[in-house]
Amino acid sequence: MVGSLGLEEKRAMPLIIDVTSDVVCPWCYIGKRRLEKALTLGGHTNAIVRWHPFQLNPQIPKEGIDRQQYRIAKFGSLERSRALEAQVIQAARGDGLTFALDKIARTPNTLDAHRLIRLAGQEGIQDAVMEALFRAYFTEGKNIGDPSTLLAIVAQAGLERAKAEALLAGNEDLPAIAAEEEEAHRAGVQGVPYFVINKQLSLSGARDPGAFLAAFEQARTDALPEETSGFCKTDPSKAPSC
Length: 242
What we know:
The protein is an alpha/beta fold. The protein is 50% helix and 11% strand.
């Protein structure tokens, strides 16, 4: 029983980090880097990171839409959109990421990307696929909503192409994706990235590594309930998110 474990035993257990995100959210990519830095600084080499779907724009058609038109509709003007993008690019640079947002021609529908991310989790290569999709979209400007482009990206990241193609050709996984998204909404997730440490402590937004380190320590020393559904503790303060 987890709750009866001693302090040292709990510290020895691997952290389990559940991340709710979307692959078109720049703060999710930045948050991924900050999480990785915190895990390295804290020596948490055996942490388990699991990625969960959250579609920021589920209404976007399967073929996607012109990104410039989408940004103008969302932010009111091209000038406002560019100003916000400049802030994101600067933040990304501070975390070692190069964003080339001017290369992105279309805002994609991300459902198929999330389906392949889920498959990658079953195959044990989820983090590699997440990284590849983030890099392809934000650094290389690729259309990750295009099926052939999407399949090429995940195959290069190590996902067996035949399995990926078979998944996208069917619809058996769609209820599971919908259920995960519904669970996130029921838990109160309104923006991403959203991190849950050991099913116990939640952090919203792309936090600095220090915030993650503090959360790791608290989650590893606090007693966990025997059964956890939802999040026992939440941090309502915000960090940049989509």
